[in-house]
Amino acid sequence: MSDDEVVELPLLAKPKNPNVELVDSVQDLQALVARLGAESGAFALDAERASGFKYSARAYLIQVQRGSSPIYLIDPAAISPDGDSEPFAALASVLASDTWILHAATQDLGCLAELGLKPTRLFDTELGGRLAGLPRVGLGAMAEGLLGFRLAKEHSAVDWSQRPLHADWLNYAALDVDVLPELMNAVATLLEEQDKAEYARQEFAHLLGFAPKGPKPDRWRGLSGLHEVKDQAKLAIARSLWTAREGLAVKMDVSPGRLIPDASIVAVVKNTPRSRSELAGRKDFNGRASRTYLDTWWKGIEDGINARDLPPLRLASTGIPNHRNWANKFPEADVRLNVLKPVMNAISEELAMPAENVLTPDFLRQLAWEPPIPINSPTVGQKLLDLGARQWQVEQCAARFAEALVGLSETTSS
Question: Is the pTM for the entire model greater than 0.70?
Answer without folding.
Answer: yes
